[in-house]
Design a protein that fits this description.
Layout (H helix, E strand, L loop, with lengths): L1 H19 L27 H8 L5 H38 L4 E5 L5 E2 L5 E6 L9 E5 L7 E8 L2 E6 L6 E10 L5 E10 L27 H38 L1
Parallel strand pairs: 2-8
Antiparallel strand pairs: 1-3, 3-6, 4-7, 5-6, 7-8
Helix pairs in contact: 1-2
Length: 259
């Protein structure tokens, strides 16, 4: 844009030199009344090049300044919009970069009382953890290990099997793992195992004295098979008699029709 403006100015000076005679470089003259100014006009005068640039059909310097101002305003607005967009994304990105994985929940819950022996401990984190660096240790009230096998990691959920608990008291669950961003997570939780009273099982001696077990009648295999065989013969005889009666009736009808 500055090079074009200088070119327009140079063309204007050349045109003014042809119209007014010899015009030294850089010299400014007052516009003549024929160009549009009246005698005694108190408005500030302008160089001839500004008036003759419009006569040549060239862009006037005022318009050039307006266009440059618009371009500068647009550039400023774009820069301001970019800064605002970057500032809006900073609060969204910064917490995720600084946040580390942490334990969200554990089952059995911390400081809870369990009346039945749990078969596993489940730890849930807010981010996935590394399965290669995850260790869970469960110790009983006497310091003995109560965990069984290795921990099973499913992204953000870790499961640790337990042996059947027999001793009542406080059990401590110590965990140590590494999140996906390399942050080490460790801590300890505990629960209390307090088994409830065991209901007594009914025995034979506790049965009522007046109740005498009644013997059940059992059928011998021979008797059951003989009764089934007799019923089969009776059914077979009835079917045979019905067939003979039907044959006799049809024979009689045939003879009557023949007569």
């Amino acid at each position: 844009m500055p090079s074009q403006l200088l070119q327009y100015v140079e063309i204007g000076y050349r045109y003014a030199e042809r119209r007014t005679g010899d015009l030294p470089t850089g010299r400014r003259i007052r516009p003549q009344p024929r160009i549009g100014h009246l005698e005694g006009n108190t408005r500030p005068w302008r160089p001839v090049v500004i008036h003759h640039s419009a006569a040549l059909g060239l862009p006037q310097p005022g318009r050039l300044r307006t266009t440059a101002a618009r371009l500068g305003l647009h550039g400023t607005l774009r820069a301001l919009a970019a800064v605002l967009a970057a500032a809006a994304t900073v609060p969204l990105v910064a917490p995720s970069a600084d946040a580390h994985a942490e334990l969200k929940s554990i089952t059995p819950e911390h400081k809870s009382v369990q009346t039945a022996s749990p078969n596993q401990v489940v730890l849930t984190f807010n981010q996935p953890v590394n399965s290669q660096f995850t260790v869970i240790r469960v110790t009983g009230p006497d310091g003995a290990r109560a965990d069984s096998g290795s921990a099973l990691v499913g992204r953000a959920v870790v499961r640790q099997g337990l042996m059947p608990l027999t001793k009542p008291g406080a059990y401590q669950v110590a965990y140590r793992t590494v999140s996906v961003d390399g942050h080490v997570i460790s801590g300890a939780r505990e629960f209390t195992f307090k088994p409830g009273p065991v209901a007594p099982q009914p025995s034979a001696a506790s049965a009522p004295a007046g109740s005498v077990p009644t013997p059940t009648q059992t059928q011998r295999p021979g008797e059951q098979s003989s009764s089934g065989f007799s019923w089969g013969l009776i059914l077979l005889g009835a079917v045979g008699a019905a067939v003979v009666a039907a044959a006799a009736m049809s024979f009689r009808r045939g003879r009557r029709r023949a007569r």
